[in-house]
Design goal:
This protein is mainly beta and 586 residues long. The chain is 15% helix and 46% strand. It is built from seven helices and 28 strands. A hairpin with an 8-residue loop joins strand 23 and strand 24. The N terminus is likely disordered.
Length: 586
């Protein structure tokens, strides 16, 4: 029965006449209306944010990984020859030095390497040292195929000649499964051959872009050309996979929509046409009591197209989430749905083995609603535009850092929900919000097989947000002692530290083994308030990889600062969560 139904019933003709019964019925109607008005926001507060479909979609995210880095090997024959025998016994006064073949630098840039020796007695060893310094100058600027040599010559008037060979690649050949992506590979090869002299940055960029193609594993070998001085041949060995399938099982879900979750995904690489990749994923969950896999369904379709020869990617994504929470929420008959779509584009501004930087833009469309006892509790229709960047950097301290940051703006278009509408998941929320969000990860290698991972995340908004745009803490990344999105807010920060020990064990079929301990903390704050909500947890765990394609982990997470909504287990007197994950990829 809705508010309108109650109002209509109170105006029924048979109660139009003033009677004691009529007065009693009117009072009952007013009480019923008051109950509905009071109960609706109360029910909304009782629905945990972690069971809403638009928030559940966020809980499936994983820690991003830096892009792969194929190795580049070169032939030692490219190195300049050393001094001739008895070169230190050939003495003369250096009257001048001519450098031929140097087009990259002005002669004044190379003058400091020999200026002090002009007019001085030198040996041929000194001339070879000058050539070596010029070679080092080229190599320091990335011209890894370029070198300076001392050619055979007759010295007259103390004038010596050094020949600079500015190296380049004059031919690129392919081995293996190159046919699928031959158009892209030919474009990358042309860009490499056009760079004369060739810099390592140019070679790395296009080799890594080749490796970014769907299903491609690219390896390269550079060797000197047998016929052209200064030229090299590049051979690309291409391995192409057509499909990839993965299966995973974990208990990272909450007690309301889980905790057990099963996920499968299938990816096809360039089977439709060159440069395309499509991935279809499905996830479902079940409670700890029985095996009724009906509390959660998540379907996700992602398609990516590679455009042009500079690594531009356009990605379309569509997803559907259905949630029907159980446990103590079962009697409320909550049903939550979310349908979303996103179109994004990314461009790799920098692509190298040590540094990658991509800029990204996206348009998002999401409709979500939650029903309670058969009545619509709230409904969000959100349209967004986003701009951001992703960078990862491998530094000289034997560490790797990955940073992602974005600004997101809500748009008043395409049937969006109005600001502060009473149908929104939060009554005071804005749909034309502006928020800034970011995350950073740092893996630092330490002595004796130890390493450390640092994680930090944050968000700030200029207004109150709907549920799906809030910052959440809790789940598999930060707050592992708690359920996904245990606490949420318009603003938030979260951090985690994880110490790892990864010994090399000689065990058949065991590819890697890691013990780890962690501590994490998070805090959220709503717009316009001073009430901060926090949580912290700590725990221990183990990870391993077996049979080259199966990853498994198990950990115990202990809540430290607040009671968890999650199902808890007793371990050595502690009341925390046992969590596991198994993932197989084929």
């Amino acid at each position: 029965m809705t508010d309108q139904d109650i109002y209509k019933d109170c105006r029924h003709p048979k109660w139009a006449k003033e009677t004691p019964a009529r007065r009693l019925y009117v009072v009952a109607c007013l009480i019923a209306i008051l109950f509905v008005l009071i109960a609706t926001p109360t029910w909304a507060q009782q629905v945990p944010s972690g069971v809403e479909a638009d928030r559940l979609e966020n809980s499936f995210d994983r820690v991003p990984s830096p892009r792969s880095e194929p190795a580049v090997s070169t032939d030692d024959a490219a190195e300049p020859a050393g001094p001739a025998d008895k070169a230190d016994e050939i003495l003369f006064v250096l009257g001048g030095l001519t450098i031929d073949g140097a087009t990259v630098y002005d002669p004044s840039e190379l003058l400091p390497y020999y200026e002090e020796k002009l007019g001085q007695e030198v040996s041929f060893n000194d001339i070879y040292e000058i050539a070596g310094m010029i070679t080092a100058h080229y190599r320091a600027d990335g011209y890894f195929l370029s070198r300076a040599i001392v050619p055979p010559q007759r010295i007259s008037g103390g004038i010596v000649r050094i020949q600079v060979i500015e190296g380049y690649v004059d031919s690129v050949s392919f081995e293996g499964g190159a046919d699928t992506h031959i158009v892209y590979l030919n474009d990358y090869a042309a860009s490499i051959m056009e760079a004369r002299p060739l810099k390592m940055g140019v070679l790395e960029r296009y080799l890594l872009l080749a490796n970014d193609l769907p299903g491609v594993d690219a390896r390269s070998v550079i060797r000197p050309s047998p016929s052209r001085p200064g030229a090299s041949e590049l051979v690309l060995v291409i391995e192409q996979e057509a499909f990839e399938t993965s299966f995973s099982l974990d208990n990272f879900g909450s007690r309301f929509v889980g905790p057990y979750r099963a996920r499968t995904s299938v990816s096809q690489f360039s089977n439709l046409w060159s440069g395309s990749e499509s991935t279809l994923s499905y996830l479902t969950s079940a409670g700890s009591e029985g095996a009724d896999w009906s509390e959660l369904d998540f379907v996700d379709l992602v398609h990516t197209e590679h455009i042009g020869s500079e690594g531009i990617q356009i990605t379309g994504r569509a997803s559907l989430v259905r949630s029907e929470p159980g446990a103590t929420l079962n009697d409320l008959e909550i049903q939550s749905r979310s349908v979303s779509a996103e179109l994004s584009v990314s461009y790799p501004v920098i692509r190298s083995r040590s540094l990658s930087l991509s800029v990204e833009g996206a348009f998002g469309y999401r409709d979500s609603y939650t029903d309670l006892l058969g009545e619509r509790l709230f409904e969000d229709k959100i349209r967004t535009v986003e701009a951001g960047f992703t960078a990862d950097y491998a530094d000289s301290l034997n560490g790797l850092t990955l940073i992602h940051a974005a600004v997101t703006k809500g748009l008043p278009i395409l049937g969006h929900s109005e600001n502060a509408s009473n149908t929104l998941s939060r009554a005071d929320a804005s749909t034309d919000f502006l928020k800034f969000s970011g995350e950073a990860y740092r893996v630092q290698h330490l002595p004796e097989d130890f390493s450390m991972m640092l994680t930090a995340m944050g968000q700030v908004s200029n207004s109150s947000l709907v549920s799906g745009e809030e910052f959440g803490v809790g789940g598999s990344v930060i707050g592992r002692g708690y359920s996904p999105s245990e606490i949420t807010g318009d603003h938030g920060v979260a951090t985690a530290i994880e110490l790892r020990w990864s010994p090399e064990l000689d065990v058949p079929h065991l590819d890697s083994f890691q013990l780890f301990g962690f501590y994490d903390f998070g805090a959220v704050l709503n717009y316009g308030t001073d009430d901060m909500d926090t949580l912290a947890s700590a725990g221990l765990g183990v990870r391993s990889r077996v049979l080259n394609n199966v990853d498994a982990s198990i950990l115990f997470g202990q809540p430290l600062t607040r009671n968890s909504d999650a199902r808890t287990d007793d371990f050595l007197g502690l009341d925390g969560r046992w969590l596991f994950e198994i993932n197989a990829t084929y």
